[in-house]
Amino acid sequence: xxxxLCLATLMATYTVNLCYITVFYxxxxxxxxxxxxxxxxxxxxxxxxxxxxxxxxxxxxxHRMHHAFADGPKDPHSPLQVGLGGVLLAQLRAxxxxxxxxxxxxxxYTCLVGDLDFEVHWLNRRGLWWLPYALHGAVAGLLxxxxxxxxxxxxxxxxxxxxVEGWVVNALGHTVGRRNFDTPDDxxxxxxxxxxxxxxxxxxxxxxxxxxxxxxxxxxxxxxxYGLCLALDRIGLLEIDRSRLIPSTS
Length: 250
Known about the structure:
Blueprint: H1 2-30, E1 34-36, H2 38-52, H3 56-68, H4 79-82, H5 87-103, H6 107-110, H7 122-125, H8 131-147, H9 149-159, H10 162-172, H11 191-196, H12 203-208, H13 224-234, E2 238-240
Antiparallel strand pairs: 1-2
């Protein structure tokens, strides 16, 4: 029973983390493949940094930079430039540079997100970037005391899973797998990441149709992130821009 509770906690927090990253930050803010309702948008902007530890505007800016310079010398986290193992550190350093660039209103960064009419989160404006991590660490510690170390670890691993998710997608999604489309970068469809990271592994599809809220192209390419988009669209919390959807072979 305890093992099931730990697994459920891991899956729940992992899903919450990915809902913010792949649906709100990625498909919504970075690529505008969907439009959040005013209430959901305000909620995400207020809570996103607390939930993920990542600023939504800085994340969107860094990701747009990745697409603008994909796998070239200016790509913030390309394995072709820094190697597979170097991507983990490169994406951290790129996020820090982007965040400070936006805070300093550096034109190289602000020009990429001029359409995003919200500021960097107040936590980062006040230098409190560490507070969400401390909060999640405290929650994990309390869960560990109340329900065992494994329960606390499951919570923290799920809610703070984005560095590993990012490394898998940014590193292996640009070195391993097949290509449905001939793109100028080395993006590839790495199927384990496609299934396990809610569609994010279909990098070649995504780089060919970056504004599509659906990342899958072939019928068997599961995209759980798009499933979340459909569910939220159905209850009126967001609207998918269907004019930008990737063509489907099914």
